[in-house]
Amino acid sequence: MPKVIDAECVACGACADVCPEDAIVVDDIAVIDHDKCVDCGACIDECPSGAIVE
Predict the structure, then answer these.
(1) Is pLDDT at 1 greater than 80 in this prediction?
(2) pTM beyond 0.85
(3) Which residue from 48, 46, 24 is spatially nearest to 36, judged by alpha carbons?
(4) Are 45 and 6 in contact (CB under 8 A)?
(5) Are 11 and 30 in contact (CB under 8 A)?
(6) Which of 6, 42, 45, 47 is most deeply buried (CB count within 10 A of its CB)?
(7) By three-state DSSP, how is residue 24 classified?
(8) Residue among 19, 49, 12 nearest 36 (CA)
(9) Are 12 and 51 in contact (CB under 8 A)?
(10) Is 35 helix (H, G, I), strand (E, B) or coil?
(11) Does residue 7 contact residue 51 with C-beta atoms inside 8 Å?
C-alpha cells in the first residue's frame, strides 16, 4: 500500500531526494504520486518529521 504524507510535513524535500521512482513532489507539502510509488519505504526512514505513514 503506498504511503501517505500527513500534515506534519515540513516540505524539506528529503523524501523526494531519496525516492527511486521520483514519485514525490514537494510544494507547500510533499505529495506522493501513488501510480509511481513502488512502496519501497525509503521515504519513511528519511523523513525528519515523521510525516510519512502507511
Answers:
(1) no
(2) yes
(3) 24
(4) no
(5) yes
(6) 47
(7) strand
(8) 19
(9) no
(10) coil
(11) yes
CA distances from 23 to 4, 12, 42, 51 (A): 12, 15, 12, 16
Distance CA 20, CA 27 (A): 19
* pLDDT value of residue 41: 94
- Give me the half-sphere count of Cα atoms (radius 13 Å) on the Cβ side of residue 22: 0
**Contact indicator for 44, 24 with CB cutoff of 8 Å:** no
List phi, psi (to 5°) of 41.
85, 0
Q: 20-48: per-residue pLDDT in tens? A: 999 999 999 999 999 999 999 999 999 99
| Single-letter residue type at 43 | C
CA geometry: angle 28, 31, 37, nearest 5 deg: 160
